[in-house]
Amino acid sequence: MGVRLSRIGAIVPQGSTAEVISMSSEVSMVSSALERPSIARRLCNANPITKRGRQLQMAKMLLIPMIPILGLIIQTSLTLSDVVTHNNKLVVVGNNVDRAQELGSLIHSLQRERTEATLFVNTPEDNLAHHNVRVLDTAFLATDNVLAKLKEWNIYGTSDPNFASRRNFEELLKLSRRQIEKGRWSGRETFAFYVNTNAILMRSMTKVVYKTEHTRLWKLLLAYTMAIQASENIACETALGEEFFTNGTLGKNESYQYLKYVALGKDVLKTMQQYSTIAKQLYANLYLVHKTNVEITERQRGIILNKVTSKIHEREVNATVTREPIEAQNNATSETNGTNDNEVPVSGEIGGQNLDFSFNITELDLWIDTMNNYTDIISMIQNKLHDAIDAFIFRDIDGAKNEVVASVVILVIILIITPLIFFSIQRLTCTIQDYAIGLSSKTNELKREKKRSDNLLYQMLPKSVALQLKTSSTVPAESYHSVTIYFSDVVGFTFLSAQSTPMQVVNFLNALYHFFDFKIDQYDVYKVETIGDAYMVASGLPQRNGKRHVGEIASLSIDLLEGIINFKIPHMPNERLKLRIGLHTGPVVAGVVGSKMPRYCLFGDTVNIASRMESNGLPLKIHVSSQAKRALDKLGGYRTEPRGKVDIKGKGQMETHWLTEKLEDAIKSRSERPGALQRGIPRGSRGGSLFPGASTLTSRI
Fold this sequence. Notes:
The protein is of the alpha+beta class. It has helices at 2-11, 17-35, 39-44, 51-122, 133-148, 166-181, 187-210, 218-247, 252-275, 277-288, 291-318, 324-337, 361-460, 463-471, 493-498, 502-520, 548-564, 605-615, 626-635, 664-671, 693-700, and strands spanning 349-350, 353-354, 478-490, 526-531, 534-539, 568-569, 572-576, 579-593, 599-603, 621-625, 638-648, 652-662. The longest helix is centred in the middle third of the chain and has 100 residues, at 361-460.
């Protein structure tokens, strides 16, 4: 620091000495502050050699993983608690749905019982033989069986003591049935009893459904409730229809009740279909396309028209009823009948049948069977909705159980591996120093391996291109205005291969390419590709070398021809190789193609022409194009002889030449320039892709 200050004092004016001293004191304060480690730094950088340092390091290593482990334990515990709570809610939902389904089954049985009971009460005594009393007993027994299967009895929304317990309700049913069987109740009293009973059960079932807290089930639950309500309305409609077919007419109140139940049934079914696509599809498939739909519509029309007709007749006789309710009822059926409001029959006939009614058990049974079919269809929809709800709940319960199992397994695994983690951390901390020593040697080894891999990469691609490819995923293609391309081929290679085994061919090519690569190392050229006996070399890329590229290729060609004379085939020492060489100078585009195995490719017509020069040449001759000849003339030091015009495939007649020798000027000029090896770019083992060689091979065919 003193040396630095003396230097500062030497270069600043004398008047600035105080400033220099002040600055030196500030520097001393800063340096002393930097030299004093803070408490946090001492804790973080504890010396593992001392006992206290080892203790601090061990505590630090154990505390750091403890934080996320505790967080994971807390999170897993909370998740487990939430999943268990959700599972319990699903169980409650399932129980509520089962209770609602049981109440729905009881309501359905009571509806059937009401149908038979009202029929029994309304049927004249002289016709009871047609309606076997055992049918009513069967309906009573079916209701008792459903009631006995109820798991629990909780009826909400009523203070009636008859519904306080199952026993009280059973006593109520027995008393009511006794009144029905002994004929003490009229049809209206019987109908009212069952309507009130089912209304209480419906309210209780609705409350059970509404107690179900499930955001994704409410539509199905509402549709299920609507189906049961629709079934109740249809059952009431059936009972009133029985009265009509038994007595031949309905009273004023019964008529309005009938219209009300018909309208409510349709509205409730429509609402049910809006809440559930399952119910909508089932209703369309089971009812709308079924003959029951037509039969019910026809009988509803008959019942409504009879009531309208009787009211018109009553108005004409007694003048006690206004025309407004008659018109309202006519409008409700005008579209179905296809008649005008003014065409309501005022005579004693309906659809050609006389109003002088006589009891017809056939029509009554047909009405009951039709409405029972309708009720069965609605019951099927109820069961399908219940199955869909059960399936949904079971899926959620299974999912919740799986989550519970997963959470428990995770928690157990955490509790098991936590001691193992601490033990491993302790062992790991003790061996960190040993690994640090080995890390240094591994780092040096990694550097050596990296250097080897880089050398392999430089053998596949030009070094400049490889470096660029390592820094970015893609290397843009580059255009070169003037390069020289070399192609050579071994004459008679096919014959030699036929006379040799595959292993001999491989050894022969290996020796030949070693010879070529040795020669290439002496020139500023780049070996692009080798395919069989074909050899492609370029100069002037990827590093531009001015106009020297044609001279480098020409010198290499002459050197190869001179050296190939003394080359001996390993398994055929008496045979001599003959090269056929072609050169061409011109523009090309070069770039890296592919991602799995990137290859340095050359594109352009120059490649094709160079290939044609080789394929149209002669053994032990260097065939050059006129462009390459002009470039050699400008460079100087090479002698050529004209060959004349040659018909080149795809190009027509071209003026070509033979390269014969290299003069002393070229040799001297090259010896004065830095050689290829002095440039620091080893070339002998470099290689790329002869992608344009595909066009070269095509041009040879």
